[in-house]
Design brief:
Blueprint lengths: L2 E4 L5 H12 L38 E9 L2 E12 L7 E3 L3 H7 L3 H4 L4 E2 L4 E2 L8 E5 L4 E5 L24 E15 L5 E14 L2 E14 L3 E18 L4 E9 L9 E9 L15 E5 L3 E7 L2 E8 L2 E5 L9 E8 L4 E7 L12 E10 L11 E9 L4 E10 L2 E11 L5 E11 L9 E14 L4 E11 L6 H10 L6 E13 L4 E12 L5 E14 L2 E15 L2 E13 L4 E10 L2 E10 L5 E10 L2 E11 L3 E10 L3 E15 L2 E6 L7 E5 L7 E3 L5 E2 L5 E4 L7 E6 L8 E5 L1 E5 L5 E5 L1 E4 L1 E8 L11 E3 L5 E4 L5 E7 L4 E6 L2 E7 L11 E6 L10
Parallel strand pairs: 2-8, 40-47, 49-55
Antiparallel strand pairs: 1-55, 2-3, 3-4, 5-6, 7-8, 9-10, 9-38, 10-11, 11-12, 12-13, 13-14, 14-21, 15-18, 16-17, 16-19, 19-20, 21-22, 22-23, 23-24, 24-25, 25-26, 26-27, 27-28, 28-29, 29-30, 30-31, 31-32, 32-33, 33-34, 34-35, 35-36, 36-37, 37-38, 38-39, 40-43, 41-42, 41-44, 44-46, 45-48, 49-52, ...
């Protein structure tokens, strides 16, 4: 029978003692301690379990799940075994195994100095001067400190390969889908569906992926016009940290710093700049443009969709493309009224420079293949190599060889220090075509590349390059087209590329300029440039007034698309603003008055009234970053012309043996972190983006995780409800590319109450006994007369009571709990069963 007592029945010192034991551990004085129990108001001092407190830094032998910290930098949770010392009684040491030594990242030259104990299982901390190891059970941590001299290079956001985590096995499905309904004057109603994404799974260090894309158009009350689902790419890859490289098998696009890319089926091994510290990583491409209305931007390469997103009207700048993307990209801007802009962007890389003494390399072999997974060329092999030599010089070169085709390249790069970096290379090709059996077509291509950041004048030339190819030069893709189709289309002649950023500190203005110009031997030239001048100003009572002027020109297949975009934004508060925009293109001038409101951390809204092509219209754009998916709603109306609504969803699902969750969108098929909130639902968790909440199973997936970066996830403790506590609210991880990481927070949910525990014979558990829930979380420490302050209790829940290192009995909370449980004392019988004897 359960009895409720009034708290006045308890001795005041008993309550204080129980609360003290529940909320903080005892620490012995230096040199060890013998506790004087006379100061405790305890009736039976023979029933005291203070083994855990009796020695200085003494930890009972056993195996513990501890978070390993190196010089206060958290690694991850490990099972750590504590042993009594081999030669000193009453002294215990944590066993630092060879596996844990590898995770710590000790330099190779110091590993040989390590000595070992406990049958050569554990490294001795005394073998490295200055090394100190301590177990702290109060924080469930193993704290290791040592001079940085012993350790591999570490920074605040980067760790050496020895600490990288391949994650756990699991499956994933990432998607980006949109549905549009459009009514256009004089035309049938149109219903369009678009989708793309990646599905696959992880096994150990391997990532198995399949990319898909889908398209469906319906008109005339559901009559199907076009419907297709295509699996565009099948491949598998893994990181090889010892080589600082990535291995890919399957369908891929040649990623080369020397030769033009093409699609092939085979295998490649290439140095991965993402594995380098942040300051040494490469350049990721970006795409800029101006949307006349709310629009959808689709970036593809040789038929495969790489990126797809909704953008509001005005200039857009897409910078989160994967930095492994190279070559020419096709950009399609689908306006809300059905019109389409199309242009190409040639991606480029910074000069091919390598640190002195280092090597960078790429090797690939296979056969060219098309979008339908069929071979369309002979076997080939290609390789390139760069070597950093002293004084900032780099030499690099490579070759691409196939039957009837060959290309050889050689170049030199130079770090000019204050003046940036420059490289020059020349490529010689030799190709034999079907209609030129008597001789080969020989040609050369020359390239100069330059990069420089001018910190002293707030300027940056991200990339500037020039390339010239003579008429007989054929890239591999040109040769394949000529071989399969009888003509060689798109043979490049000259190409200029420039990206420039400049900030004027005194005036507060910023200038961004991008230029891409390319001429061909066999088709019209293409031009693409965009310039944006913007700044923030204070004007009368309006603070942070923003003005922006953008001009752009695209010349594609002989047709010019020119425009100027003027924007003015006036803040109305911390989250909202009014704006006025004008777009001038060809013979039209469009005007728009808009209102933007950042509703909260996850929602934003934009509305506008406009004059577009001399007709009045309205636009609404709403975006929600949800826990299950990112959702955007895009509606537009123009009098006498069209009405259109688009709904887009970007998200994914990840499932592992540790659980899974639906989640918002990130890089499709990319790195993610599954966090476990100890089974407690609705716990707010934050990575680098906005807060998400764990699902009903206590799981959430963070997609804002960068590969090879030291990332952090935290429980937003200020947003927890009063029933929930997080005793471990921060986790860290450094995940390899495409990994599904797993980390667990220590979260307790439930009420708090004082209780009295009684054994079957009417006695009480020993002073210092611990109470633990089913998830092995400590919920209280027993004080005098069996009094204990319990946290995280729920009706009907069973908890174990332990002393002498084993489970002795079980207490069960009442159902239902009294509504005034905080002002009562629960009398809880502790029931012993035979199955507990061996626990």
């Amino acid at each position: 029978m359960l009895i409720y007592l009034n708290k006045t029945n308890l001795k005041p010192l008993s309550i204080v003692t129980s609360l003290s034991l529940s909320m903080a551990p005892f620490y012995a004085a230096s040199g060890g301690a013998q506790f004087n129990t006379e100061f405790l108001d305890i009736n039976d001092r023979s029933k005291i379990d203070l083994n855990r407190f009796s020695q200085d830094d003494y930890v009972m032998p056993g195996t513990y799940d501890l978070v390993v910290q190196i010089n206060k930098n958290e690694l991850s949770e490990h099972s750590v075994t504590v042993y009594d010392s081999d030669d000193t009684p009453d002294v215990s040491h944590a066993c630092i195994t060879a596996e844990l030594i590898q995770k710590i990242g000790i330099k190779e030259e110091y590993l040989k100095n390590l000595s070992w104990w406990h049958n050569n299982e554990c490294a001795s901390e005394s073998s490295l001067s200055g090394m100190d190891v301590k177990v702290d059970l109060s924080t469930s941590s193993l704290n290791i400190s040592m001079p940085k001299t012993y350790l591999e290079y570490v920074s605040d956001n980067w760790e050496p390969p020895s600490r990288w985590d391949n994650g756990i096995a699991g499956i994933l499905l990432d998607y980006n889908i949109s549905l549009q309904a459009r009514q256009q004057t004089g035309m049938p109603d149109a219903y369009l569906f678009r989708g793309n994404g990646t599905t696959g799974g992880n096994i150990g260090a391997w990532r198995i992926r399949a990319d898909w894309q889908s398209h469906m158009d319906n008109q005339n009350k559901g009559q199907s016009i076009d419907r297709r689902l295509e699996w565009s790419r099948f491949y598998a890859y893994r990181a090889l940290p010892s080589l600082k490289a990535r291995l890919i098998a399957g369908e891929d696009y040649l990623n080369s710093g020397l030769f033009d890319g093409f699609r092939f089926t085979g295998t490649s091994l290439a140095s991965d700049d993402n594995m380098l510290p942040p300051g040494l990583r490469g350049y990721a491409p970006e795409v800029t443009g101006v949307a006349r209305t709310n629009a959808r931007v689709i970036i593809s390469q040789q038929g495969r969709v790489l990126y797809e997103t909704q953008v509001p009207s005005g200039p857009f700048r897409i910078q989160d493309l994967n930095d492994s993307v190279s070559g020419e990209l096709d950009v399609r801007v689908e306006e809300q009224d059905g019109s389409v802009q199309q242009f190409k962007v040639s991606t480029a890389s910074i000069p091919y420079l390598t640190r002195p003494g280092d090597w960078r390399y790429k090797v690939a072999l296979g056969r060219p293949s098309d979008f339908r997974h069929k071979f369309n060329g002979p076997h080939f092999i290609t390789g390139e190599l760069s070597r950093g030599i002293s004084n900032g010089w780099s030499l690099y070169g490579g070759a691409l060889v196939a039957p009837s085709y060959g290309a050889l390249s050689f170049g030199v790069g130079r770090d000019l220090l204050l003046f940036g970096a420059i490289s020059f290379d020349v490529t010689q090709s030799r190709a034999k075509l079907k209609n030129e059996s008597s001789h080969s077509s020989d040609g050369r291509s020359y390239r100069v590349s330059y990069s420089k950041t001018f910190d002293e004048i707030d300027s940056q030339v991200t990339f500037a390059g020039y390339r010239f190819s003579d008429k007989n030069y054929l890239s591999m893709s040109n040769w394949l087209e000529a071989r399969n189709g009888g003509i060689s289309a798109g043979r490049s002649k000259e190409m200029y590329t420039l990206t420039l950023n400049k900030r004027f500190r005194d005036s507060g203005l910023s200038l961004w300029f991008g230029y891409d110009h390319q001429t061909f031997w066999d088709r019209p030239s293409t031009n693409r440039y965009t310039a944006t001048l913007s700044g923030d100003f204070d004007l009368w009572d309006w603070k942070r007034l923003n003005l922006s002027l953008s001009a752009y020109r695209s010349r594609y297949y002989g047709s010019n698309d020119d425009g100027v975009y003027l924007s003015m934004s006036i803040p109305l508060g911390e989250r909202s603003r009014m704006s006025y925009n004008s777009t001038f293109s060809k013979d039209t001038a469009d005007h728009r008055v808009g209102y933007y409101d950042r509703v909260n951390d996850t929602d934003s809204m934009q509305m506008s009234l406009d004059s577009y092509r001399d007709r009045i219209g309205a636009n609404v754009f709403y975006n929600h970053r949800g826990d299950l998916a990112d959702t955007s709603i895009n509606a537009a109306y123009q009098a006498g012309r069209f009405a259109s609504t688009t709904v887009s969803f970007t998200g994914g699902a990840t499932l592992t043996k540790e659980g899974g969750a639906f989640h918002r969108g990130g890089i499709t098929g990319g790195t993610r972190l599954l966090v476990d909130t100890s089974g407690v639902p609705d716990v707010p968790v934050k990575g680098y983006g906005s807060i998400i909440r764990s699902n009903r199973f206590g799981k959430a997936v963070l997609v804002d995780v960068n590969s090879y970066f030291r990332s952090r996830a935290i429980v937003a403790v200020d947003e927890l409800d009063e029933r929930t506590e997080a005793t471990k609210a921060v986790v860290h991880s450094t995940l390899t590319d495409g990994a599904i990481g797993y980390r667990k927070f220590d979260v307790i949910s439930g009420l708090k109450a004082m209780a009295m525990i009684r054994l079957a014979d009417g006695s009480v558990p020993p002073f210092g006994s611990t109470v633990m829930n089913a998830r092995k979380q400590e919920t209280g420490v027993v004080g005098d007369e069996g009094n204990v302050f319990l946290v995280g209790i729920n009706e009907g829940e069973s908890m174990s009571v332990r002393w002498d290192g084993v489970v002795k009995c079980i207490i069960t909370l009442p159902t239902p709990l009294p509504t005034d449980v905080l002002t009562r004392i629960l009398l809880l019988p502790c029931i012993q069963s035979e199955s507990m004897e061996n626990k």
